[in-house]
Specification:
It contains four helices and nine strands, in the order βαββαββαβαβββ. The chain is α+β, with helices and mostly antiparallel strands. The chain is globular.
């Protein structure tokens, strides 16, 4: 039986709580201007930053993934990441597909993500479903909601509330997680399979 796997950074409760407040505020903005919100919000417990989407893996291949992620984690120190703003996403695209909390550019986080990507894609003993494409042009963000396209399409551009807001909070990253994503009828359920701490 295969498992749907991705590598991620978890978020502290203070960040999740702030995002939840923004979700409720944006929801009210849509309800006021359009009558209903076209956004399916990410549940609080599911909020995270994806570093690399692996895809479906055989259980036997998971041990190899654990070894790679642990090795990469041992090469990095704990570091801080600042969150910048919340906005429609992708930027400059209409209609948008999601609502994101965007992180400020971090060269250190970029190095971590690239190291993971190269290590996972170059290991001959692991057969990845996702071999290219979906992780290109990495941009650290938290997916806070997905836009229901048919609802969004019924709205006039002038009806849409401006959801852009500053999100001036930061947090310390001291670990990365190997996650399983189970697609359920009521939405995805994420489970931490293993967590690996950085050197500090």
């Amino acid at each position: 039986m295969k498992k749907r796997i991705f590598i991620s950074i978890g978020l502290p409760d203070k960040i999740k709580n702030k995002i939840t407040e923004f979700q409720e505020e944006i929801d009210r903005s849509f309800s006021y201007s359009c009558g209903s919100s076209p956004i399916k919000w990410t549940k609080k417990d599911n909020l995270h930053i994806t570093l690399f989407f692996v895809g479906y893996l055989e259980i036997n291949d998971l041990v190899g993934v654990f070894d790679i992620v642990e090795k990469v984690a041992n090469e990095f120190n704990t570091f801080d990441l600042k969150l910048e703003n919340i906005s429609y996403a992708p930027k400059g695209k209409f209609p948008p597909k999601m609502v994101w909390v965007n992180a400020e550019k971090s060269d250190y986080l970029g190095m971590l993500q690239k190291k993971l990507e190269v290590a996972l894609l170059s290991n001959p003993n692991i057969v990845l479903e996702n071999e290219e494409g979906s992780n290109k042009n990495f941009s650290a963000h938290i997916t806070t909601g997905r836009i229901v396209q048919w609802q969004f399409a019924r709205m006039e551009p002038e009806e849409l509330p401006d959801i852009s807001k500053d999100f001036s909070m930061g947090f310390k990253i001291n670990s990365i997680e190997v996650m399983e994503s189970e697609l359920k009828k009521g939405g995805a359920r994420y489970t931490i399979l293993k967590s690996f701490n950085f050197k500090d």
